[in-house]
Write a structure and sequence with these properties.
By secondary structure, the protein is of the alpha/beta class. Helix content is about 40%, strand content about 15%. It is built from 9 helices and 9 strands. β1 and β2 form a beta hairpin. The radius of gyration is 19 Å and the shape is globular.
Length: about 260
Amino acid sequence: MSVIITRDGPVTIVTIDRPARRNAVDPDTAAALRDAFAALADDKDARVAILTGGDGHFCAGFDLNAVGTSRYDPDGPGPMGPTRMLLDKPVIAAVEGHAVAGGLELALWCDLRVAAASAVFGVYCRRWGVPLIDGGTVRLPRIVGQGRALDMILTGRPVEAQEAQRIGLADRVVADGEALSAAIALARQIAAFPQLCMTSDRMSAYRQWDFDLADALTHEAHAGVAPLREGATAGAKRFTEGEGRSGSFAAFKGE
């Protein structure tokens, strides 16, 4: 199997396991990734997912040995797998080693990126004339800004973890070998929050790109109706009874 799926309570861990190819994705692996995240979307007990790679690498991109083995359909699913899906649940990338070319695009697809200290990001496919067609030219500018994105896109240069964190590409940097465990701890914390409100706010943050400012604010206001009705009163009562004072998150450690 090129994709391994494991569960840790409400956290689903999806691991690309093609060590001989540094977890490069071929068409079969792409299909397996799509299937894994489609199943996650339908699983009521799954709250947060982690995408990672086995054997010390996140993903080296699309497997160039597989180029030409299948027909590319620009209106079909992304060649890297789930990159044209918008899930209603958060996904965290746990990045050890290289997240480059299509592997960078997979990391960008995730909501958050936890990177090991020696992790490397980059548009390495620049060298071979292979375009970014799994969201790289769209998501990278939205995450790091147009200028920094173009620096990476035009030069293809490697971006190490510390720079990635400085420009907003990596959200957390941890010691080598600890990206997955740190991502699991983060996922547990997110899974412990009231889910209706959290997922509504998350989806509004994504959907706002579809609108101008006024319509985005209107969409946010309407999206907040259900969380206010179904959960905010109970949450406010917990606060008035003493929980969460002084900014404490003790009740949401996810342990």
